[in-house]
Inverse folding.
């Protein structure tokens, strides 16, 4: 294949290649040169690598064009539920780019890295305080990695106590799919429990499920339906009485910042998504941090090394502590994604305790504003008096009356210039549309989005085909998702390939 | 509206059962395939696997989600419909005939009484059971 093109004609970088074209003009070498084949051995040299040969301008234009196809929070409203797509303040980039941080080497001596160690130590302390627990680690590379680490520590805890028969992890049916995956990856068996008619944990079925084989309960609070688990203390009591631990999936921590703390509710361990709650960049395969916080009972099992502080104030000395015999070991090279920690630290310090509380308050207020204005236009899943930081709509009514599904509504929203909400999750809500505005959006932005949603609900009645064939105003129209899964063809093959 | 053939039995997890002597053929319902959307991957058990009623016996993956398949009956898997592995759209197009998933030799045919009839399943699915 040689003529794959992105829809509006942006060719692949390989297709811009012209033999001999280069972006760098190096001076003639002033030392004797030896052919690579002599240095490496001819058998180790590949001659048919189809690397693109392009000019600097070719490269700049190509990637600028691609970046212009991207949708980002800097470009528009991004109400992707459960993902907390808040604005990431640019000051985070400024601090992370400071040469003292950005140019460090992970192997440089501790005494020359005191500032970095202090920052990690302080951030861990702040995270532990925010969630009401004893200690934290910044090693996990992402939320699901934090889940896995949490389950590893739960496993180590029970094994240490000689309680090895505990092999069941209980997970509600509204959970993120990563929860059962993390538990299973750690060797646990997963037992699902149904939600009750309010969309929360069914206490009766939890009471019937916990027993001497229960290792842990994994629970998201607020849950994925956007509701606070108001029975949380009773839930934790039931699991603890049976000898199990309770893990908090911190994906939805934004709703609780500065207002309430998982540690005070009875949770033993939780993960934070620094990219959700603390404004570090999302995804893109880049570095992330799924920091994990623990109560004292799990502290000995934290990944090694931890950071130790001796002395206080200006005379404090920080060092890595590798003498951790009960630790589950290392789960990331070196110390995790350090520059992500710098961003989260900057965010927390620039807001302070009061600022964090305002985040929680405004995230919840914004979601409830959307919920209130869309009531009557869409069904609200598990309609309660109010929701937390996100509202889950159901397009069931539009499906029954107009043959328009959640996916069609999402695609139509793209025509209005918005990133679609999360759809078809949580799985317990039919035709789910999960909207999380975050605290960083203004009332004017929310109003425009709500107006678009209302307009779309009217279009569903008057012109359902307009929705079923959407989007119409985007670079590419509706993609064939089935073909994308079934006929994976991601690799460009050069014409001269073997 | 989703089809619900009169002569089949149904589970609340949206599998259908067609009985022929000791052999029960199992698939997912028209309602289930419609809710899932385009199916792209099937994970089916090998022949010889012993299943208890409500055991998870496989997975069906659509563009929207991965869902577990639960055995509506106890018994031994005698055959899986491996021929549709690369034609998973068959389950969407013809869920009750060519899109069948497994055949089970029942070990306790009295379990059939625990399943729903067509009318019961239809009202269960219409009420939004999922």
């Amino acid at each position: 294949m040689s003529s794959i093109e992105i829809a509006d004609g942006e060719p692949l970088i390989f297709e811009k290649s012209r033999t001999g074209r280069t972006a760098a003009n190096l001076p003639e070498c002033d030392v004797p040169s030896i052919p690579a084949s002599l240095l490496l051995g001819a058998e180790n040299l590949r001659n048919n690598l189809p690397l693109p040969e392009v000019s600097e301008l070719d490269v700049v234009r190509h990637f600028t064009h691609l970046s212009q196809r991207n949708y980002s929070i800097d470009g528009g409203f991004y109400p992707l539920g459960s993902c907390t797509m808040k604005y990431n303040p640019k000051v985070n980039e400024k601090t992370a780019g400071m040469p003292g941080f950005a140019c460090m080497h992970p192997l440089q001596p501790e005494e020359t890295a005191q500032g970095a160690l202090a920052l990690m130590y302080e951030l861990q302390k702040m995270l532990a305080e925010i969630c009401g627990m004893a200690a934290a680690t910044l090693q996990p590379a992402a939320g699901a990695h934090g889940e896995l680490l949490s389950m590893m520590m739960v496993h180590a805890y029970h094994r240490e106590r000689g309680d090895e028969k505990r092999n069941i992890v209980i997970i509600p049916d509204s959970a993120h799919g990563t929860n059962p995956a993390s538990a299973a990856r750690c060797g646990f068996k997963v037992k699902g429990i149904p939600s009750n008619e309010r969309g929360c944990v069914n206490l009766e079925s939890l009471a019937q499920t916990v027993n001497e084989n229960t290792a842990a309960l994994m629970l998201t609070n607020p849950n994925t339906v956007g509701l606070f688990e108001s029975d949380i203390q009773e839930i934790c009591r039931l699991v603890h009485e049976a000898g199990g631990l309770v893990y908090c999936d911190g994906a939805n921590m934004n709703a609780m910042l500065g207002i309430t703390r998982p540690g005070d509710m009875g949770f033993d361990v939780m993960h934070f998504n620094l990219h959700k709650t603390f404004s570090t960049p999302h995804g893109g395969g880049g570095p992330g941090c799924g920091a994990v916080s623990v109560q004292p009972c799990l502290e000995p099992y934290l990944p090694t090394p931890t950071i130790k502080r001796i002395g206080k104030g200006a005379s404090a000395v920080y060092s890595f502590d590798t003498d951790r015999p009960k630790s589950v070991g290392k789960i990331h090279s070196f110390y995790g994604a350090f520059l992500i920690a710098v961003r989260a630290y900057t965010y927390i310090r620039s807001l302070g305790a009061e600022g964090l509380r305002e985040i929680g308050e405004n995230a919840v207020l914004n979601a409830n504003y959307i919920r209130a204005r869309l009531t009557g236009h869409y069904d609200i899943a598990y309609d309660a008096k109010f929701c937390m930081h996100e509202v889950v709509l159901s397009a069931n009514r539009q499906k029954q009356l107009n043959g328009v599904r959640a996916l069609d509504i999402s695609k139509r929203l793209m025509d209005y210039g918005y990133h679609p909400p999360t759809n078809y999750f949580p799985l317990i809500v039919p035709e789910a549309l999960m909207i999380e505005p975050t605290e960083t959006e203004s009332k004017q932005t929310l109003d425009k989005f709500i107006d678009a949603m209302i307009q779309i609900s009217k279009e569903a009645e008057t012109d359902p085909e307009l929705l079923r064939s959407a989007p119409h105003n985007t670079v590419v129209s509706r993609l064939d998702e089935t073909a994308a899964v079934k006929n994976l063809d991601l690799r460009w093959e050069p014409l001269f390939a073997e | 509206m989703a089809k619900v053939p009169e002569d089949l039995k149904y589970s609340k997890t949206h599998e259908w059962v067609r009985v022929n002597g000791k052999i029960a053929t199992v698939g997912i319902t028209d309602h289930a395939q419609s809710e899932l959307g385009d199916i792209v991957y099937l994970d089916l058990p090998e022949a010889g696997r012993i299943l208890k009623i409500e055991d998870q016996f496989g997975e069906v993956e659509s563009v929207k989600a991965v869902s577990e398949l639960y055995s509506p009956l106890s018994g031994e898997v005698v055959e899986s419909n491996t021929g549709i592995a690369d034609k998973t759209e068959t389950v969407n197009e013809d869920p009750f005939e060519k899109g069948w998933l497994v055949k089970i030799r029942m070990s306790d045919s009295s379990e059939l009484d625990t399943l729903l009839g067509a009318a019961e399943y239809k009202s269960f699915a219409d009420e939004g059971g999922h």
